[in-house]
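Researcher: Quick one. two chains, 236 residues in total.
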Amino acid sequence: MRLVLIGLVTGFVSALFGVGGGIVVVPLLVVLCGYLPHPATATSLAAIGLTALAGTITYAVHGEVDPALAALVGLPAAAGATVGIALQQRLQGRTLSYGFALFLVVVAISLLV
Amino acid sequence: MSATTLAAAIALGLVAGVVAGMFGVGGGILFVPTLVLLGLDQLEAEATSLAAILPTVLAGTWRQQAYGNVRWRPALVIGAVSVLGVQAGALIAVSLPEVTLRRLFAALILLVAVQLAWRARSG
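Model:
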């Protein structure tokens, strides 16, 4: 039942915002189901595969997906993520996280003005 | 598509992937602003972001599976049910004005920024 609830919320957030939904799934698995962070992240990734696929198909039907740009951004990103995960083990710093948080605030403001 | 757009897309995708991997956030939160920067409107950017997420998610799941971290049954239940949520979310997204959708997205990344800062403080 909890998983059903998580699934519904994830799909909604994912399609509304064009994100995978990990920001929703990971905390919910930890809080509602008592998962540890690692299995929560891994399980979230597997679930999001289906969510993003459903979202892609739904929007493709509406003609909103640009497949060329998706590949141009998505394929280098997949390679980059591997590098990022490796870097994460070495560069765990509070300053870095605050820096990224600040960067996101700047992105948000630039979208608003 | 111009050569500049092509190069920018690849470079921004690479950077977004590195950052996403480093901070454990999904690529989407970075793909959407990237795609807006490349000239898509908010809805197109969100739709295209979902497609761009797929390779990263596939690669990530494959790696995590090797570590034995994936719990498949719950993942499949969440994933299957999420299809219903996707229909609702997409229905709302296509009916909202561009500006509203962009503002909502901005609010979402502000929330993620707060969550990151909070995690850094308590971690």
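Chain B touches chain A through 97 residues (CB under 8 Å).
Researcher: Thanks, that's what I needed.
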